[in-house]
């Protein structure tokens, strides 16, 4: 990846896109390549722009964020999806976290926090504002840290635990089958599991499932 970080903002309020551009203006390495006001246009934009990071509003006119995660993954499998919301305890937030986003950031974040979040997301770090859902996000972040699993590896393990096959996981997360196999292999190594069943068992014992 080049030093240029491409960012897409999915939000139905133009002021949010303008605000993000303003906050990021002093970091020339992060470039806002577009904004989308609804789910349908977001998928088209992400497929065309291939951003490194997507800032996704929790609620859009035609979808909630949890419904949009899978289509965005299919449109740009390598993009990191970070929920960008004003509501730290909205009912839809937990479903979005469960859908496997790469983080959650509150909209009152300052320029320093936003830049750091974008850069950390690109590097593969799961980003969660410490004020967001104190019951779920920090706890899961700590568990992932303890096991060494990345957010993407965790996503694949979670789908495997639900009984999905590798092709089904690949379709759900917008990945190739080869990539899914690689994530499972990495997860097995990190959890010291010899096979899929043992992986799921150890993930459950670690509090990940």
TrEMBL record:
GO biological process, one term: regulation of DNA-templated transcription
GO MF annotation: an example: DNA binding
Keyword Transmembrane helix among UniProt keywords: no
Ranges for domain Response regulatory: 6-122
Thylakoid listed as a keyword: no
Domain HTH luxR-type: 142-207
Gene3D superfamilies cross-referenced by the UniProt entry: 3.40.50.2300
Keywords: DNA-binding, Phosphoprotein
Residues with 4-aspartylphosphate modification: 57
Xref: Pfam families: GerE, Response_reg
PANTHER family noted in UniProt: TWO-COMPONENT RESPONSE REGULATOR
Protein name, per record: Two component transcriptional regulator, LuxR family
């Amino acid at each position: 990846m080049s030093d240029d970080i491409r960012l897409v903002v999915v939000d139905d309020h133009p002021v949010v896109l303008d605000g993000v551009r303003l906050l990021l203006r002093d970091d020339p390495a992060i470039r806002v390549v577009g904004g989308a006001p609804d789910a349908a246009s977001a998928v088209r934009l992400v497929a065309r722009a291939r951003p490194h990071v997507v800032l996704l509003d929790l609620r859009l006119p035609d979808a909630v964020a949890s419904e949009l995660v899978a289509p965005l993954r299919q449109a740009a499998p390598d993009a990191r999806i970070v929920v960008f919301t004003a509501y730290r305890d909205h009912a839809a937030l937990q479903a979005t976290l469960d859908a496997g986003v790469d983080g959650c950031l509150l909209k009152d974040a300052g320029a320093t926090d936003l830049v750091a979040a974008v850069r950390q997301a690109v590097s593969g770090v799961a980003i969660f504002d410490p004020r967001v859902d104190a019951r779920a996000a920090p706890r899961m972040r700590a568990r992932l840290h303890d096991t060494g699993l990345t957010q993407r590896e965790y996503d694949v393990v979670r789908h495997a635990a639900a009984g999905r096959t590798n092709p089904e996981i690949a379709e759900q997360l917008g990945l190739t089958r080869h990539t899914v196999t690689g994530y499972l292999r990495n997860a097995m190594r990190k959890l010291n599991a010899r096979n899929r069943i043992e992986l799921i068992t150890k993930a459950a014992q670690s509090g990940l499932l």
